[in-house]
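Duplicate of earlier report; Core-binding (CB) domain-containing protein input re-posted below.
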Amino acid sequence: MSGRLGLGERGEVFYAEQQGQVVAMVYYRDHSGRRRRARATATSKAAARRAATRAVDRALLAGDGYVEPLTVAEAAEQWVAGIEAQVERGTRSPTTLDVYRSALRVHVLPAIGGWRVHEPTPGRLDRFLTTVQAQRGFRLGQNVPHGAVRHLRSAGAPGCVAAEPCS
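Output:
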């Protein structure tokens, strides 16, 4: 694995020998973004690797249960399903759903759909929104932030701005 680890990710396992035992070590990033090392000792590489991997899994699950990285696109699918339910109940307009779907399909998902939900920081979102406003015009640029920020908030993205940037 190259580059910086994402939240909840682990790196490659590396080994050392200590007093006739195999020591497996692996770095991972916890949910607060801190780089940590798990270490396990066993009589074989395979057993040491399994023990180190289990230690990382336990540490990550003890945090907030978030192990698999959720992308912005996956969060958007969940968010759209919630809006669809509101439309069926009559608490949201079908036109609102169409506008949100269009903004996601045309602007948000092609640009940031592959990001993990913890990656959109206020600075990154600001750059994205500035680009949309410059390319598509102010009116459309105002609609996109509302949908993008709402669906990130609904996914529980840590560090997501508390107020909508273009209200």
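The two ends are 41 Å apart (CA to CA).

Merging into the original ticket.
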